[in-house]
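Database export, one record per block. Field names are fixed; values are copied verbatim from the stored entry.
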Amino acid sequence: MYKISILVISRTSVLLNELLNSILHASKIDKSYIEILCSWNGSNQDYLSIQKNIYPNFDIQIIEPYHFASNMNLLISRAKGEYILLVNDDVLLDPGSIDKAIEFFETSSEVGLLGGNLRDRRGTLMHCGLLFNIFHLPYHFLEGLVNHDNEIVFSKNYKISAVTGALMLTKTEIIKDLRFNPKYKICGEDIELCLDIREKFNLSIFYTYGFSGIHESETTRKITEDQNSSLKDKFLISTRYLRFILRSSIDNLIDEYKFNKMILYAYSENNIDLSVKSRNYKWNMMFWIFIYYLKILILLRKALRMFFLPY
């Protein structure tokens, strides 16, 4: 059995080769205990440029057409590692980042899935976790608002609603009975997986700073067709989150309230300018509405549990 299975979907040899080389420095685990499974969706000609000899256990599956959930589900079913790392081909992992993630995972029994700190090449923070807004839609909080080493996220570990599928670590024993929802066309299946793990296993999604890298998220989108979030995807994830906050344990609902209070406090204490134009701007301004919404739901759930329903 391998220590870790690294799963990646790619259609561009340049990006894939850069990722493979970054993995060399991201872990000190012996290569013989690392399995890399790749779903290749690119051209036959570009396939010839892949550096296939970097790792002895590097297996490329030729899968067409590209569909993140379906492609990744096939790779998960074939993975043989104790841990499973899901990573985008446009991510460059920082030295030691895989080892730090595994170390964190092994020190806490609460962890169900782990996400990390992603930045662009200028050092601007791109991802440190996801929250939901009043419309039950997810967003990357702090995206584009601070540097990746800002004190809000620097050297921090915290629970969060969800993390991006661009960089995820979990255990095979956790994910073996779960799969990405193939109904999503473009995005949202990674976030739903986080909710599934929290609801089914009562485990937490964590962010840890040491699990990090560079992610130019627009790189893949520019060369991949139809990379605009569909209305169907938004409907799927919003209804899934609504089911989560209504049907999941009340502890999970309380956690949602705490996550949002934590971030609101961080914005206030660190003088984050919410007037900065960014993709999550409109959701930031509605924080307080969502917090009270969650608080009301908690009170209602507690009342139902006390007087009517045993959950």
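Remark 1: The chain has one domain: 2-307.
Remark 2: The mean pLDDT is 90.
End of record.
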